[in-house]
Amino acid sequence: MDIEATIAGLGHLIDGRIVRNDATFPVENPATRSPIGDCPEATDDLVDAAIAAARRAQPGWYAAGDRERRRVIGAMAEALTERLEAVVAVSALEKGAMGGAIEAYGGPAFLGHHAAAPLPVDVIEDNDERLVRVVRKPVGVVAAITPWNSPILIACVKVAGALLAGNTVVLKPSPFTPFATLLLGEVWKDVVPPGVVNVVAGGDDTGKALVSHPHTALISFTGSVEAGRHIAAVAAPALKRVVLELGGNDAAIVLPDVDVDLVAAQLFTSSMIMSGQVCAAVKRLYVHESIYPRMVEALARLADAATPVPESAGGSFGPISTRPQYERVRLLLDDALTHGAKPANAGARADGAGYFQAPMILTGVRPGMRVVDEEQFGPLLPVLSFRDVDEAIAAANDTPYGLCGSVWTSDIAAGERLAARLECGTAYVNTHAEVAPHIPFGGVKDSGIGRECGTAGVDGYAELQTQYVYKNPARVATALESGDRVV
């Protein structure tokens, strides 16, 4: 595969055609800080064209029926599978590491699940007199805006849920990782009816044009809390629906009865996946004081074994995906060290390379430090000790975020009880950061509104309509005349 030629040929997918325009913006490889290429930037006119195409296609797409929509979603999964290696290669270039691109491998599975899952119908009553059911109907045109850390998987999640409900979609990737998503549009061009899925690339102006457009009915966004609040404010006057997944500051609580080495390895993976740049990663660790020194030592060994240099130079730990995020991670680390935090491992930095930050296990941390209170979205793990488990639960919940949380213990019943007390959208026992296409995922508090995946995820892209069907109209009329029926 000639990656340079592939990238140079990419454009927006609008109404079934690849559209290229003169306006562009640069994209760089964060592992080398070298340019990848100039990406087409959708102007307001192109955004209008994409939304108009989606609006025209939507009635016919819904009328095609559940079975046909699922057939097309299945064809999208197959087409992505056939071109998956190319999509992964482009994504790896944008993220600076193949490890950061593995999320794309989940895309076909999430599409495939929706292709095999008929749109639910809830039957409330079905007797001789009447049928009462709840059906899912589309909201219209969905604007789906994806983040730089997981652009392909999250695009598949959003598009599959929206299409199954009968909506059409305009998809916009992050300007930091746009090329793989534009390639995704090219992959789907010939298997999706024109206008049903459109893909446009661009920066903040493109996103604002999508969100504020009078013909987008629902905004599905994954990204920062600040951006999510802005989207909700823009959507509010028109009462547009929103599905918002806005990150987290996930806490994991470790009880004293665990196998320290085993759990340390699992926690390190769950916190440092994609160099800590996953919304559902462990970002705060509360460890019982009796095993705290051993846990810190085990985590430090794992951190020092990770090599923060490019994969081409033998590195095993990818870069921070964007310069602004790298600068933020460095700021949080410097702030923590200034206020008394102590690194438990060496944490060597790569000199002269890209945006690399070695994983850092931090002790001497406390609430009030930014590295504890804020979402780091990088390879920094503050480790705090506790004596009383009620104290740990209170500390875990003392945050405006509420995406995920976990409890680690050999006592499963105790783990379930404690996990149920966590204020978060997903509570785990002895695992963290797992997602699956049939399981709802989303946050509470500042971590978002709504759910993705599963039946609850499809409901987020649907209008629920309650339908009453009386099987004997004559009996209904008699009941109304006698006053026996409340209307």
Automatic annotation (TrEMBL):
Residues annotated as domain Aldehyde dehydrogenase: 22-466
PROSITE patterns given in the database record: ALDEHYDE_DEHYDR_GLU
Entry-linked SUPFAM superfamilies: ALDH-like
Catalytic residues in the record: E245
InterPro entries: Ald_DH/histidinol_DH, Ald_DH_C, Ald_DH_CS_GLU, Ald_DH_N, Aldehyde_DH_dom
Keywords noted in UniProt: Oxidoreductase
Protein name: Acyl-CoA reductase-like NAD-dependent aldehyde dehydrogenase
Keyword Transferase part of the UniProt annotation: no
Similarity comment: family membership: Belongs to the aldehyde dehydrogenase family.
Keyword set includes NAD: no
Organism: Catenuloplanes nepalensis
